[in-house]
Amino acid sequence: MTDFVLKRMVALLLPFVQMFGLYVIFHGHLSPGGSFSGGIVTGLGLIAFSLVFGIERSEEKITERMTTLIESFGALWYGAMGLVGILRGTSFLMNKGSGISLGVPGKLYSGGLILLITLGVGLKVASTMVTLFTSLMEEED
Known about the structure:
- This protein is mainly α.
- The chain is built from five helices and no strands.
- Helices cover 71% and strands 0% of the residues.
- The two termini are 16 Å apart.
- The mean pLDDT is 88.
């Protein structure tokens, strides 16, 4: 795409879109939103970059290997947070019952492991969105 205005707008807005996506992921247990919707926003920001600047330039910045690693890490991170409960002698993904501090209500750290769990899910969703998009774009060529 050769539209100067569109490229400048995406370049200008992309950092804010990414920050908003991360904000939604990190504050999902305090307000509407969460890991899935924050991951979608983050992934769609990267997809917008690909649409405006081209899939080739996008793959220079975010390789297929990188998205696969992030996707795998997100799932592994979620599983690891679930195992904390088992290692503490309770159920998988057990939070309060396993003696983990729940923090201060209304603050960012106020749900025990929920903040860390949503981080893993958000990474998984964002990288899955990018992977699906690049797969569909490659099939189209």
